[in-house]
Structure formats: structure tokens, C-alpha cells
């Protein structure tokens, strides 16, 4: 099994990023399951802040479960945000979307893919 580290930036605000690990098949598509990651938000004078997330594909669909996404507080319960990243080939330059809880489609561009470990 090949595990990749993927970094992606929000096309509207490139300083906001998602980084995650995931096992992939021979076509470099994520294998269903739960994969760990984190978001990076650089929105204040304190510098970049990191918050955990879990990338999930199960019988309920594909989603990122973001901790602190709305308030940027790590104590906030995880919120599920649908994504199509499991349908994408994980290569630099590929785009995927995350749908927030208000239905807004956030587009991310993969900036790097490297072997984990």
C-alpha cells in the first residue's frame, strides 16, 4: 500500500491550506477509509494556526471532518464538509472541492504530493 502526503491550497486564499495523508490505489486515487490531516489558517498576527481534520469515505459519503473550522478553536466539535477528493487523481495541479455547511463550494488546488514516511 502506498501512502501519500498531499498539500492543497484554497484558490481564493492560498495561505489557507489542507494537508493530509492517505493510502492510494495504482491510479493514485484515495482508498476509502479514514485519513488524518490538518488545516493551516494564516489569518492573524500570531502566524499560521493548525487545526486537525479527518478525511473520511464511508457509507455516509466522502467528507472532511474539520475541528475548529468555523471558530478556529480546537475545542469546537468536528463539522462534516462534503468533498470530491476521493474522485480525483492525486497529482500536483489537480483541483477538488469542499462544500461548507452553507453550501458554498470551496475549490482547492493540490500543490504537492509526496510519499509519506
UniProtKB/TrEMBL annotation:
Domain of life: Bacteria
Organism encoding this protein: Acidiferrobacter thiooxydans
Name of the protein in question: Uncharacterized protein
